[in-house]
Amino acid sequence: MSFTSTLRVACLLLALGLGARQAAAQATATTAAPKRQLQAVRISEALKMDGVLDEAAWQQAPVATDFVQQRPNPGVPEKQKTEVRVLYDDANLYVGAIMHDVSPDSILREMTARDQFGNSDIFSVFLDTYHDQINGYNFTVTPTGVQLDARYSPAVGEDWNWNAVWESRTAIRGTDWVAEIRIPYSAIRFSNMPEQLWGLNFARQRKRDNAQFFWNEVKPAINGFVNQWGTLHGVRDVKPPLRLSLTPYVSGYVNDNPLNAEGQRRTTTSFNGGADVKWGINESFTLDATLVPDFGQVQSDNQVLNLSPFEVQFAENRQFFTEGTELFNKGNLFYSRRVGATPIGFYDVQAGDDEKIVRNPAETRLLNATKVSGRTRQGLGIGVFNALSNDVYATVRNEETGEERQVKTQPFSNYNIAVLDQSLKNNSYVSLINTNVTRWGQTYDANVTGGLFRFNDKTNTYALDGGVVYSRRRGNRFGSEEQIDDRDGFKYEIGVGKISGTWTWGLNHRIESDRYNPNDLGILFGNNNITQAFDWGYHKYKPFWKVNNFHIFGQARYSLLYKPTRYQNHSYYLGANTVFTKSFLQVGFDMSVDPKNHDFYEPRVFPLGKYYVQVPGSTFFLAFFNSDTRKKFALGMNAGIRGYALDDRLARPRRARYQFGAYPRYRVNDHLTFRYSLDWSLGQNEIGYVNGGMDAGEPLDEPFVGQVVLGRRNVVTVSNVVQMAYTFNNRMSFTLRTRHYTSNVRYRDFARLGEGGQEELIDYRRNRDNTYNAFNVDAVYSWWFAPGSQVSLVWKNAGSTFLLAEQATPQYFDNFNNTINTPHNNSVSIKVLYYLDYLTLRKGR
Question: Which residues belong to the signal peptide in this entry (predicted)?
Fold first, then answer.
């Protein structure tokens, strides 16, 4: 054989060997690690919770060690050993952990408020008490004793809003730090079996290396998290305890509002009282109820100027609606801000001749809210949520006679959700969800029912998922004899894809009918759609070259109007990000290409299909980076531009949109941190709705009555947020958050919209320029003086301005000064919660 032939054969064998090695490596990366097992040891004497594992029982328990790195280099054994032991008695599960390190300085320990991650090492305990490999608990502690806890579920993933009452003590001893954790059985749910089999895992984060390790290896290329835990054995003859706790509260408010109507006091006071109740109905199900709730201390909403045809979705900050709601979030049919929202007749209140609206509540006060949820030993999750709100009235006063009349803006209402969720093998499930809103009086009721499913193959590599949802409304529009027109609608979705491995992909098809409307208890920004999408991703989890990992992903999407069936839009998206090995600098980009599309929603003409706004094709590109968060100073930034094709139908200038964001953070020490965020955007020569359409509250201008008028406008929006957090210790903290938002709209010309997307310039004389400003201050002092018990002192300051026509100004500092000098609403409140646990009280007695 010639040398050339030999070389070719050698190259072929080498290529086959490398290919086989790569295939073997990929197969290893997508094959779940063997399930480790740990034996728990029963104890008969109480442990002293002091962060010192000096009791003899700790030395007798088996040790969980040899953790495996999950990031930044998956599969590497830990060098600084971790040792974990598990004990239990009739009432508690105890976890003792020793985290060995090279020196005390290597243990990072920023002090934060509860449930807040910082520049700190952490140790975590994970429990899957029903061993369904889908749902689980997380109990985390830092070297300074800060507690964090979370729930895991398919609906919400990792839910850090969940809180439990448990105990932990930590200590730094030489080059080690120690965590001692006591988890009462009342904090978790498990079956009433003679011997428990629980999913179990432990995690350790060494922040100095930005490395995370797990006892039972968790491979990032495998879909799912709870399904990659080990098992805990040996917990025998423990009974689910009676879980009964009462958390009464008292609160007091002093409110100063200089904008109160004439005849109303500027400064008012109020006192409130109520309670939260938790009752374990049995070993599986828990009732949570809040009686006469008070949500006056939650963080202020980020109010914005909304020029879109859709409502603004606000974050939920009320703890009762964020904690333990994983079942109710199945299918995204529950938008909790609907409960206690703005009354449905708020905007319909009219003052007659010589009358003035002196009071019109913008929120609906709840009478109570209750939820029952849990999961049986067979994996059936059941959830029931119910809330009641009372009648809400606006007050209108005759300015001549002083006589007042009441206008009902919200009838007595009942909100209800019921969920059945059956866990299946291979990380699969089927679910049934029903949401219902019943209102008393002459108005309408709403009901939504949905069925969902997800089926994974045995290797957890491929999945089929989907669902069908039916919405139904019955009755009349509030305050009218007119029947609602979106009475019955539906939505269905089906998808298939590869969910694990280096390469992932998914194909999805969805239809939302023209009458589908879940918005009485859910949220949907636009129905009447047919959408097809194909997603793909490539993920490199192991370090290579100079980076720790690399991810690239894309999507192709095509959308039609459902009725009548017409083209809406299609788009192509590509994004990528990576983290450099030594600097831990994260960089990435997002880009999309959107060919010419038809916007049927912007004209606000219903039913859809007759009018639409033609949007020229566009290309969007955004780049971002985030620096190493371990440094005292860290910075994140992004900058993006969307360029549009020239739309020369009316000889208009080319559209463009620019955006910029900067997010510096400076950590003064382990107690004090400052954060700042700046978001700026400019929409240049945008085309948007001005008046007409179906908006009955919009004043129409002669001679354009009954016509849709669009405007070419420039929109500049700036948001500044300054935050300061000082944490005294792991139970006491103070935070200050100040936000100023301004959005300025300047119109250049106007056009009449015709059928088929045709536009015609018109001589529209009305000045529609406007400027909106919002300013908020939230200052919160919080002290957890006992487990589950808290004192919070809050100052809230809020003010806003909406300037029209000649008063609108594009100058930022003019807007800032106007906002600061405008009278603001000020509120100072104190609230005391005290946690009373039945088992503790009985033991003390």
Answer: 1-25
* pLDDT, averaged across the chain: 90
Question: 494 pLDDT band (50/70/90 cuts)?
Answer: very high
Whether the Cβ atoms of residue 215 and residue 67 lie closer than 8 Å to each other: yes
Q: Is the pLDDT of residue 227 over 70?
A: yes
Length of the chain: 845
Q: Please tell me the distance from the alpha carbon of residue 60 to that of residue 54, in angstroms, as a whole number.
A: 11
Strand 230-233 relative to strand 825-833, pairing: unpaired
The contacts of residue 99 (CB under 8 Å, 6+ apart) are 80, 82, 107, 121, 123, 176, 177, 178, 179, 204
CB 607 within 8 A of CB 635: no
Show the domain range for 311.
Answer: 244-262+271-477+618-844
- 693-709 mean pLDDT: 60
Under a CB-based contact definition with an 8 Å cutoff, are residues 723 and 694 in contact? no
Task: Output the pLDDT for position 260.
Answer: 64
Residue 58 half-sphere exposure, CB side, CA atoms within 13 Å?
Answer: 20
Position 261 confidence tier, pLDDT thresholds 50, 70, 90: low
Domain total of the chain: 2
Pick from 762, 550, 630, 695: nearest CA to 110: 630
Q: Are strands 230-233 and 37-39 parallel, antiparallel or unpaired?
A: parallel
Note the pTM of the prediction, 2 decimals: 0.89
Q: Tell me, yes or no, whether 607 lies in a domain.
A: no
Bridge partners (DSSP) listed for residue 429:
423, 454
Tokens of 290: 């809040």
Between CA 254 and CA 3 the distance in angstroms is 93
Closest CA to 128 of 201, 182, 65: 201
* Residues 160 and 277 both lie in one domain: no
CA separation, residue 87 to residues 60, 124, 150, 189, 826 (Å): 10, 16, 22, 18, 51
Kindly list the distances between the CA atom of residue 389 and the CA atoms of 246, 247, 343, 684, 719, in Å, as whole numbers in the listed order.
22, 21, 10, 44, 34
Terminal-to-terminal C-alpha distance of the chain = 94
Q: Is 318 in the same domain as 177?
A: no
Q: Tell me whether the omega of the peptide bond preceding residue 220 falls within 30 degrees of 0, making it cis.
A: no
Q: Which of 827, 820, 811 lies closest to 771 in space, CA to CA?
A: 811
**pLDDT at residue number 812:** 85
pLDDT of residue 177: 96
- Between CA 707 and CA 689 the distance in angstroms is 11
Q: What are φ and ψ of residue 337, in 5° steps?
A: -70, -10
Distance CA 214, CA 217 (A): 5
Q: Do 699 and 724 fall into the same domain?
A: yes
- pLDDT band with cut points at 50, 70 and 90 for residue 647: confident
**CA-based angle 537:541:544, to the nearest 5?**
115
Closest to 194 (Cα-Cα) out of 130, 238, 129: 238
Domain identity same for 691 and 827: yes
Task: With respect to residue 419, please indicate whether it lies within any of the assigned structural domains.
Answer: yes
More confident residue, 616 or 815: 616
**Chain segment 103-140, per-residue pLDDT in tens:** 999 999 999 999 998 999 999 999 999 998 988 999 99
Work out the pLDDT band at 630, boundaries 50, 70, 90: very high
At 841, the amino acid letter reads: L
Regarding whether 275 and 229 lie in a shared domain, the answer is no
Q: Is residue 501 part of a domain?
A: no
Q: Are residues 252 and 207 in the same domain?
A: no
pLDDT at residue number 266:
83
Name the CA radius of gyration of the chain, rounded.
Answer: 30
Looking at the fold, whether 373 and 468 belong to one and the same domain comes out as yes
Cβ neighbours of residue 470 closer than 8 Å, sequence gap 6 or more: 448, 449, 450, 488, 489, 490
Give tens-digit pLDDT for 565-613.
999 999 999 999 999 998 999 999 999 999 999 999 999 998 898 899 9
Tell me which residue has tokens 């703005």: 342
Residue 665 shares a structural domain with residue 765: yes
- Dihedral angle at the C-alpha atoms of 488, 494, 499, 502, nearest 10 degrees? -120
